[in-house]
Amino acid sequence: MTTNSLTYAKSLDETYEIPSKREAFYIQEGRIYFDGNSLGLMSKRAEETLHSLLGSWKEYGIDGWTQGEHAWFFLAEKLGAQMAPIVGANKEEVIVTGSTTSNLHQLVATFYKPEGKRTKILADELNFPSDIYALKSQLALKGYDESHLIRVASRDGQILDEDDIIAAMTDEVALIVLPGVLYRSGQILNMEKLTQAAHDRDIMIGFDLCHSVGSVVHQLHDWDVDFAFWCTYKHLNGGPGSTGALFVHEKHFGTAPGLAGWFGSNKEKQFTMSHTFEPASEAGAFQIGTPNVLSMAPLLGALELFNEMGIANVRKRSLALSDYMLKCVEDMLGEYDFKVCSPTAHHERGGHIYLEHPDAARICKALKERNVVPDFRAPQGIRLAAVAMYNTFEEVYKCFEILKDIMETKAYEKFSNEREIVA
């Protein structure tokens, strides 16, 4: 039985040791959804917990803050405890709050403390633009221009060399902010190695985990990472605009948040309405405003599914699916000028694969016309994420069968090679 056959793909679905939770999600019949690294699909559990929180508002009104199954006043901490096993943290070290960028602002405002010659922030040139905007903004607030932002260069435009990052950890660096997984190539950075190197040089380090949480195993506490932040709508399937999350290592508990707000208060003192801020003793101190209860609600159900499956099993199944993707590229697309830009080694590859092709934008449009949902990244990138929770080996095979047909028939040529408003 050849690997590039539907029969083989179906046999993998029947025999693979770790089953998906596909039945727990809303899957559109006849549609192959490989964009879960941008927005995960809705699970039935997420829908249920959203309705549950709507019901508590309906039933209790303002008393929903302290009454009902999921009292709103403690919701951020409850979700933090659910999230902690997924990122390898103690439950007190994680809080669900804000958004990716607002949490980055909070953490940099807290831990970026320029002094003497240590005034620079170290990042990389492949990072997601929003992080760079925030870092430049934080520098400006401290009176520095962007010459104080070091961006480590990529040698090939796709991946970062960790030795280059370490070499840039000079005695001028006050703070380091790096991605856990690069959003284009899917490269995993060795967070443990980089954290150790930073701490050997007395530099604080944090990570953007938007493209790694829910697809990669982390041990943030044991790795001694100072802080991290991430969104919850990609691999975690929390829904569009779902509330973000952050991690602060317990060794930093008691550090005053750079941006103080009333929901960062010690809960026992929050409603005394004192003008003296008394922060919570744990990661909850880094909250700013009132929780976005309805944007947090789907996470209650979504995270249940993760903790039932176990992040180690999620990772193992994810790698099996992306291994099969890479095999299909090799077996079925060899003559069509696709370039694989993702690392092939398991310890270096996250939850998606990244291909480049000169006609990428219109190939993506042709795929969507055939009910395959990819993700285009300008100028010529195609990201494909086979999500462990709900995608199948059969879908992987069918995707590449369709893609091969699109290339053979040149069906993509009827489309313009320009991205849509949302890539």
From TrEMBL:
Role, per record: Catalyzes the cleavage of L-kynurenine (L-Kyn) and L-3-hydroxykynurenine (L-3OHKyn) into anthranilic acid (AA) and 3-hydroxyanthranilic acid (3-OHAA), respectively.
Known pathway: Cofactor biosynthesis; NAD(+) biosynthesis; quinolinate from L-kynurenine: step 2/3; Amino-acid degradation; L-kynurenine degradation; L-alanine and anthranilate from L-kynurenine: step 1/1
The encoding gene: kynU
Keyword Hydrolase: yes
N6-(pyridoxal phosphate)lysine modifications at: 234
EC number: 3.7.1.3
Reactions performed catalytically: L-kynurenine + H2O = anthranilate + L-alanine + H(+); 3-hydroxy-L-kynurenine + H2O = 3-hydroxyanthranilate + L-alanine + H(+)
Keyword Hydrolase: yes
Domain of life of the organism encoding this protein: Bacteria
Entry binding sites for pyridoxal 5'-phosphate: 100-101, 128-131, 208, 211, 233, 262, 290
A GO term from the CC aspect: cytoplasm
Protein name: Kynureninase
Taxonomy of the source species: Bacteria, Bacillati, Bacillota, Bacilli, Bacillales
GO BP: anthranilate metabolic process; L-kynurenine catabolic process; L-tryptophan catabolic process to kynurenine; NAD+ biosynthetic process; quinolinate biosynthetic process
Subunit structure: Homodimer.
First and last residue of the signal peptide: none
GO terms for MF: kynureninase activity; pyridoxal phosphate binding
Pfam families hit by this protein: KYNU_C
